[in-house]
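Supplementary Note 3. Input sequence used for the single-chain structure prediction.
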Amino acid sequence: MPRFTILNDRRFWLFFAFALTLLGFPRGILLDWIYRTGSLTDLNHPGGADFVTFWVAAKGALSGHAGNLYDPSFFSRAMVDQFGEDFDMRWLYPPHFLLLIFPLGALPYSVAYTAFQAIGLVAFASLGILAPRRCEMSLWLVFAPTSILCLLVGQTALLVGALSIGAIFLWDRKPILAGVFLGLLTIKPQFGVLIPLVLLIERRWLVIASATLTTCALVAFAGLVFGFDAWRDFILNIAGPQGDVLRANAKTFLEIQMSVYGGMRLAGFEADTAMLTQIGVGSAAIIALITTLRSAARRCTKLAMLVTSTYLCVPYILFYDLAAPTFIAVWLYLGYGLEKGAGPVLSILLVLVATLSFVNGLTVAMGFSAGPLVFVALATALFFRAREESARAPEHQRSPQPDETTPRAGDRPVLARESAASWR
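The predicted structure, written as discrete structure tokens, is reproduced below.
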């Protein structure tokens, strides 16, 4: 057995990677992003570049103009009324997201900003309860680079990551709650794009029913509160400002993209070529996901493949949208849910994922985006790990079985013990 030193302690290297990343944040693109629409010392608008859209939208919804938010000219005027200039941001979220944020419009900017980010951070840190060492996992999540970045930028990624991870890790044990989380995840539906496929393959009918009912209730309630015209305007907006965001060719915007599409555009390829490549890589990721789901791999390997495949399928991912893969990376790096610890190659990949916003910033300075390359490498590593786990599994576990069943009463204690063991 090798003698223990700090240099062969996994936690030391994760701490070192986080510290190095955070020390890199005060320079370059991050400061440009923060100060582009505010100053950390300005009490009226203390930084948080993206939060201005949520606050302006919340004030618009409170004043009865929810449907008008999707009109670029209206939103531009509202931005100028609040801050004296238009920051060239538009409202792209569905109407039921307004249900979650419209009370913020009644608060001063700094108070609303603090409350919104606190809710997201608490939700993300609460995922630590899924780990054997709860407090330790929560601390890693709080101080993860993606958490600090989201807090400074003022984005939804922590809340979205909490809903996504909470749903997929709980749908074995709490299917109704997992469905509620999935219904709420429709505020940013692209990050759940592969989840319906998984639910159908695994025949999780209770999760599907709960998610469907939650989504329908949110859609209907938002229509009643803000008017159903808001939904019409949102749908029409998909081909307008939302499409313009995806087609944007500004180098500063492409540099913070993490998708295959964004990486191809940054490399100089035309939009059609980039999208075809995105479709090809996404299709391969879906095939790898289905193969992994139907194998006898451990549950955490399958969930990690689901998250990784999602990030290979979505064409619009920005550098703050990394909460879910950060959780997966830290979880697997620390050995949770793995029968055999992560080897050197997988460990390096997991650390790269956990610090990807910074790593991508370094590679962009060299002329290419590391984001899609890291996700492709991680998907490949998980695919082969799933094959290895399947080969070691007992013969009776190798035929694919649905994960959601209705066990007999006498089977439940045995199944409970097996389920608990599978998460260690």
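The radius of gyration is 22 Å. The chain has a mean pLDDT of 83.
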